[in-house]
Amino acid sequence: MPLAVVALTTACTHRSSDSSDTATSSAPAGCSSAKHSPGDPLPADFTPIPGTHLALRVPDGMQVDASLPGLVRPKTNTTIVVVDQQQPAGQQPDKTLAKMEDTFRKSAGPGQQGLKLDAPKRTEIAGFPASIVTGTQEAKEGSFRKALAAIAPPDSFVTLTGTAEQKDPLTDQQLLATFCDARWLTERAPAELGFTITPSGDYKEVPSGGSLMFSLRGETGPDVPIFLAAPSQGQSPVPAAERRAFAERRFRGLPGNPQVQTVEDATVAGDPAVEIVGSSPAASNYSMMVFTDTGYILLSGVARNDAPDQTPAFREMAQSLRLQ
Predict the structure, then answer these.
(1) Where is this region: Disordered (predicted)?
(2) Domain map of the chain by residue range?
(3) Residues 107, 115 contacting (CB under 8 angstroms)
């Protein structure tokens, strides 16, 4: 099962059966808004998502977080995560989306407790073929509403994973509208990094405009283990007493909504950090959140559960962080 699809699928499982809350679980609608072509002029109320080709209209009360990368409502589990992975040129959009939709259908089967998905809906986002699915998930932290989209440009595989707490003011319709109105940038959005990472073992750096990304053997593709280093943006320093809870909340907001298994305090590049290891039903996850005077740097790795353990390599790269 492709990692990008796995992350999207697992993340799309949050939805409560309590119909009195903010949203309802009707089948996802296709994007009925005006079509947007790649490279269209960017309206003033759209914000590029660092390291990706997408710009989104930021919902009220949410802000850009380059460490996801995506959008977050501060001090909540409500996020919109954008994953933009370079793929070999010439991929066939219909096959890519069909594979993703098949994964969605299988994901609600035995062993996926708490996951409920509606039928995927084909549509168009940012001028490219896309598929949208909505769902819910019962997790340790509560019930969540989900909306997910996969977009198939010629040489990328892009996913948007929206997670909303049941009583969050962001409605299902607003969440889907954020996806449907996305605009495609001809170049990846840049970001000021201010740090370096030394790759471990067979990991090599791969293109990523708003972060540092490393993949095993420098390969691209949805099944390849990846390690991502991204700075926060617009984030105030996190008080010492709140760091562990903040790191755990951010970890659970990663694609796939992984569950925390171990949490350890650490020091990286002379700064305090929190290391978390966990997993989702299909992938193993690693995170090191390094707290700085201006916010934090999130170092995260993901690999399929059936792949050899990548935690030692992820930890080595996290410890190699050097601030500039």
Answers:
(1) 14-51
(2) 3-20+38-184, 195-323
(3) yes
